[in-house]
Amino acid sequence: MMLFVDHQPQMFFGAGSTDRASVVNATVGLAKAARVFDVPVVLSTVAAESFSGPLLPQLREVFPKHEIVDRTSMNAWEDQALVDAVKATGRTKIILSGLWTEVCLVMPALCALAQGYEVYVVADASAGVTPAAHEHAMQRMTAAGAVPVTWLQVLLELQRDWARTETYAATTEVVKEHAGAYGLGVTYAQAMIDPHAAG
User: Fold this and answer.
1) Main-chain phi, psi angles of 7, to 5 degrees
2) Distance between CA atoms of residues 190 and 71, nearest Å
3) Is 126 left (phi over 0), alpha (psi -120 to 50) or beta?
């Protein structure tokens, strides 16, 4: 399952570890990967009405009818409604992304790992206050057993084989929309070489 934590305006304001537009792009690409492959998703915010603002609109657009678990706790895993929502998916692997890496990702990642979940942290759909904060948080989670991944890696691992025709078109659309030069390459290949060229 995928857990998106605190992709909100106030959190983006403080994110300084990388280009914010890149994080938005990666987050939406990851969300669309979940939609294409029908991966269960839990969306969570912190203090949405009093401080941090609403969920990233582009993310909300991918899941317009999903319930959002709003919390007061920095550690999402201390919110029982969120833990219940994760457990309700019946999945034991969590693909985790959010803001900030050093707070709102580290804490639930460590808690979920301690409870026996496999945790995959999507580094480029997450950001910290500084590059060092993000990197040290990624190292801390990795040392505890989390696996660092990128949004495109997740998408392509879900597709696995270009012969999987039921998800081929939707996957290549996500690539073209969000995978930068790779997406342009697919567009070119499909136009100039073969409409079914994948990359």
Assistant:
1) -80, 80
2) 45
3) beta
Give whole-number Cα distances, 149 to 40, 52, 53, 67, 185, in Å. 18, 26, 27, 26, 22
- What span, in angstroms and rounded, lies between the C-alpha atoms of 71 and 12? 17
167-192 residue pLDDT tens = 999 999 999 999 999 999 988 888 88
Residue with tokens 């920095």: 74
Task: From 55, 43, 52, 71, select the one nearest 13 (Cα to Cα).
Answer: 52
Report d(CA 89, CA 4) in Å as an integer: 14
Residue with tokens 């790779």: 182
- DSSP letters, 176-191, are HHHSHHHHHHHHHHHH
Q: What is the pTM of this model?
A: 0.95
Reduced to 3 states, what is the DSSP secondary structure of residue 166? helix
From the list 63, 67, 73, the residue with the least C-alpha distance to 30 is: 63
User: Which residue stretches of the chain have pLDDT < 70?
Assistant: 196-199
Are 44 and 72 in contact by the 8 Å Cβ rule? The answer is no
Q: Is 127 helix (H, G, I), strand (E, B) or coil?
A: strand
Query: 102, 137 in Cβ contact below 8 A?
Result: yes
Crossing angle of helices 165-178 and 151-159, in 10° steps, is 160
Q: Is 104 a catalytic residue?
A: yes
Choosing from 86, 96, 104, 174, the catalytic residue is 104
